[in-house]
Design goal:
The chain has 299 residues and is α+β, with helices and mostly antiparallel strands. The protein is 35% helix and 22% strand. The protein has 7 helices and 7 strands. A 3-stranded antiparallel sheet has the order 5-6-7, covered by helices on one side. Strands 1-4 form a two-stranded antiparallel ribbon. It has a two-stranded antiparallel sheet with strand order 2-3.
């Protein structure tokens, strides 16, 4: 496997891919835009040439460059949606980013900081952890007709087409396409495997999106590093904030506050964020990082 990745790296380092590599390495400059059409148009003829010439390694190199481009685009799009409060839409983009990274990992190993894939991997996971919406649907299907995405051959327990699932053929990844299925049941589960099935009952207005919205208001660029620490704190509910000891208790028990709810505390998740903002020239080999810390208690 390591030798295969080394051979793929040599194929990606060919002079014909110089323009595509330069576009991908300039990812830090793309704060709110996707890759240009020039990038995608430069790869299409190279893949076609490799496939027509039977050069599977070069065709696979093109697929890797395309997948890295999609990862960058999904990541940038997700963070711009978070910054604009479109958290539900960003959730879908983050899942696509996570899936594309899982596809790429089987075939390609990035050099440190080369294309931002590792940064996207780390911060996609962190963002997903900030979403406090965990419930979703888990469907069960009976698949009646499954086809190979490469040759469209029908796949059964006793018949395979010869294309390996997850491998790259003619510059495309082999997958399985379900042409016909029967829905057996749908279950409501916590933390479903398919993140797309997590539902947002109140859309982007859900109060449980407070942590991810807080991130969006404080993040300067998707490519700046950040981290967070979460703990559970005990605090009085806000309704008791200005109540004096001898006042009637707001819970309508008829007793004084000091003899009722004064000693009651509720548990609230508390997030403390640390943002690392680049203040030196990005081209400098030594980055000067200024940490900025913020915190939020979610109720």
């Amino acid at each position: 496997m390591q030798e295969e990745k080394l051979n793929l790296r040599r194929a990606m380092d060919q002079p014909k891919f110089q323009l595509a590599r330069r576009h991908l390495r300039d990812y830090r400059d793309r704060v709110d835009t996707s890759l240009s059409q020039e990038y995608w148009q430069s790869l299409s003829p190279l893949k076609r040439e490799a496939v027509n010439g039977g050069d599977q390694l070069t065709a696979k190199a093109v697929w890797c460059l395309e997948t890295i481009g999609r990862i960058q685009d999904h990541f940038v799009t997700a963070f711009n949606q978070i910054m604009s409060g479109e958290c539900e839409e960003a959730w879908q983009q983050l899942e696509r980013c996570e899936i594309e990274i899982s596809f790429l990992d089987r075939h390609f190993s990035e050099r440190p900081g080369e294309f931002g894939v590792e940064h996207a991997r780390i911060h996609t996971k962190k963002c997903q952890e900030l979403y406090l919406l965990n419930w979703g649907f888990s469907p069960a299907f009976l698949c009646k007709d499954i086809r190979c995405s490469i040759c469209n051959a029908k796949i059964t327990l006793r018949s395979e087409c010869g294309h390996e699932l997850g491998e790259i053929h003619d510059g495309e990844m082999c997958g399985r396409v379900v042409k016909d299925f029967e829905l057996l049941h749908i279950a409501l589960v916590e933390k479903p495997v398919q993140k797309y099935s997590v539902f947002f009952p109140d859309g982007n207005d859900d109060d449980r999106l407070a942590p991810i919205k807080f991130l969006g208001r404080n993040l300067i660029s998707p490519w700046h590093r950040w981290s967070y620490y979460k703990e559970v704190r005990r605090q009085h509910h806000p309704v008791f904030r200005n109540v004096r000891r001898n006042d009637p208790c707001p819970c309508d028990s008829g007793r004084k506050y000091k003899r009722c709810c004064l000693g009651n505390e509720e548990l609230f998740p508390h997030f403390q964020f640390s943002f690392e903002e680049h203040t030196a020239n990005e081209m400098s080999p030594l980055e000067v990082i200024r940490p900025r810390r913020s915190q939020i208690t979610f109720r």
